[in-house]
Amino acid sequence: MEALLFNASGGYLEGVLRGFKAGLITQSQYSNLTQCETIDDFRMQLAATDYGTFLANETPPISTSTIADRATNKLVDEFNYIRSNSVQPLTKFLDYMTYAYMIDNVVLLITGTLHERDTHDLLERCHPLGKFETMATLCVATNVEELYTTVLVETPLAPYFRDCLSAQDLDDLNIEIIRNTLYRSYLEDFHAFVLSLGSPTSDIMSPLLSFEADRRSINITINSFGTGLSKDQRAKLFPSMGRLFPEGTSALARADDVDQVKAVLDGVVEYRSFLEGGSSSGGGGGAGANDGGVASLEDHFFQYEVGLNKLAFLQQFQYGVFYSFFKLKEQEIRSLTWIAECIAQDAKDRINDL
User: Fold this and answer.
1) What is the dihedral of CA 263, 100, 180, 206, to 10 degrees?
2) What is the pLDDT of residues 253-269, one digit of tens each?
3) How far is CA 169 from CA 93, 148, 177, in A?
4) How far is the C-alpha of 262 from the C-alpha of 32, rounded, in Å?
5) Cα separation of 86 and 58, whole Å?
């Protein structure tokens, strides 16, 4: 039945999206980009891809931040085209995708206001996909209390803020608690919505959102070592979903060092290699005591996520491809920025560490 009715509302946009996906940079194109000697060479090689002449109007020398910004603008244009032509329930699905960026933007504004920075300058640093109609009202706030109240009333994130701390409790540590509490509520809500859509969308999206929940649980645990975050507070930040839930997250809540985190990951075959060669032997050292292992962990996260997102395109008549394409596009932008940065800094020995 889903296959019978899907094309009536989503078939055209799925076709458009798969066309976008065919324009992702290929392995041979990446190889050509890594052989560039200058940013101008890099720009010329990009002109042979779907990015075309998107840097043609930029005055040399072109910075890597400019490349990242223009590539992100292209992603936003593609997303907005899909969003403006969508109907329910795809429209709501796409809205859920933007909530993650909204959380980062709102937390950025709260942090900046806490440190008495100009919110108008902070607004320019916000991710375009995380901007919403009432975002300008946040700039009216002159202190944290006003900003917090505005967020609770004026933004789509209001339901997720109800379980967070009050404005009087805000400091740098509690802001991170707020960020992770918002993400927990967001992931659980998004997962519930995906399940309500039924198969095949739920079959594709559940593994993707479960992995995102597990990644956040692992990162929260490792980053909390050596901080003032108690184990009880840590446990409250874990999403109630994922491959690690509930036994694994309970063990992560009790973990004292990276070795214990690695023991938890050994229980999931796909996660077993994530911390190999990067275990830490002491408690309280935290992530800072093991930067190499944590960097390797992030690489494993990205590689595994890319694999899951590629699998989403093996099935039709489902909304998971919309989520996966933009995740793959974000990874492509990170790779392009990395290559450009290595060229700009003459660090060609690291250019293939994608």
Assistant:
1) -40
2) 999 999 999 999 999 99
3) 33, 11, 11
4) 37
5) 33
Nearest-CA neighbor of 235 among 243, 267, 224, 159?
224
Question: What is the mean pLDDT for each group of 10 consecutive residues in the chain (354 residues)?
Answer: 77 95 95 93 92 85 92 96 95 96 88 78 88 75 69 77 64 79 94 95 96 96 90 94 95 94 94 73 38 70 96 94 97 95 90 80
d(C-alpha 332, C-alpha 156), whole Å: 28
Alpha helices, H only, the chain: 2-9, 11-22, 27-34, 39-46, 64-84, 90-114, 119-124, 144-154, 158-161, 172-197, 201-224, 231-236, 247-254, 258-265, 291-311, 320-344
Residue-level pLDDT at 350: 87
Q: Which residue has the tokens 């996520």?
A: 305
For residues 141, 146, 151 and 155, what is the CA-based torsion angle, rounded to 10 degrees?
-50
Q: Which residue, chain included where needed, has tokens 């694999």?
A: 307
Q: Which residue carries 């992931």 as its tokens? A: 187
Both structure tokens of 348 = 């060609």
Q: What DSSP state is assigned to residue 222? A: H
Phi and psi angles of residue 49, each rounded to the nearest 5 degrees, phi first? -105, -175
HSE value, Cβ hemisphere, 13 Å, CA-based, for 239: 29
Residues 263 and 283: their CA atoms lie apart, in Å, by 15
